[in-house]
Amino acid sequence: MNAERRPMLAANWKMHKSVPESLAFVRMWSRRVAEGAALPDPTQVELVLCPTLPALWPVAGLLDAMGVAVGAQNVDVGTEGAVTGGVSGHLLAEALATHVIVGHSERRRLFAESDAVVAAKAAAAFSAGLTPIVCVGESSAERQAGETQGVVARQLTAVLNAVPEGDGRLVVAYEPLWAIGTGQGAVPADANQVAGWCRALIAAAWGPAANRVRVLYGGSVTGDNILGFWHADELDGALVGGASLELESWLAMVRTVAPAPSA
Length: 263
Ligand code: 13P
Known about the structure:
The protein is of the alpha/beta class.
């Protein structure tokens, strides 16, 4: 955590929840807030919810009223054209998304997204005015072979070469593959070290602008372990999968990171 950067807590719902289920979650969250559940001041903590694509537009108005941003989970390159199934950044922005996850390891693996494709998608997000949350991270085998720093550097360098520097919009999420959905999160000190490597790499490319780039941690984050990551020097928040799907566990995380209201 660093005063120069506003921490982010982002929920990645992946391919979970129908549109009515997504709406019900957000309506219930809104009701809980009206009843006094903690909701951080958006100038102090940025909350982002990334539902499935069809749910973006339906939930956006309610979330906006709560000061919560809406993110997509993928973006295609280009603006429009003969791309069956494609959804451009402009279309996402029209559906009221302001953020987009790019290069999640599930997309790299299941859809064979290369570093070059991920970099092009990050650039597409920038040109559509979206905030890209770019995921990087090593597999278990790469970690065991001592390749973490090299893998993350390769993935991040491709993105740094493709996007404009300096406006502080780029968000990096360090998500080691072995920690995703396994219940075995990284040790905060290790995640912090990788985040430090990321920022050093960004600083080498962009200079002081690196201080404005947020680096999140993702992988088996829950209400029980989030504070360790939240307070790590080089980390600026968390990207949460499974533990964001159930309202009570999401509320527990939001409550844990919400600064105490000033007296
Ligand atoms: P889990 O929190 O379920 O491990 O998922 C992490 C993730 O992939 C977020 O993008």
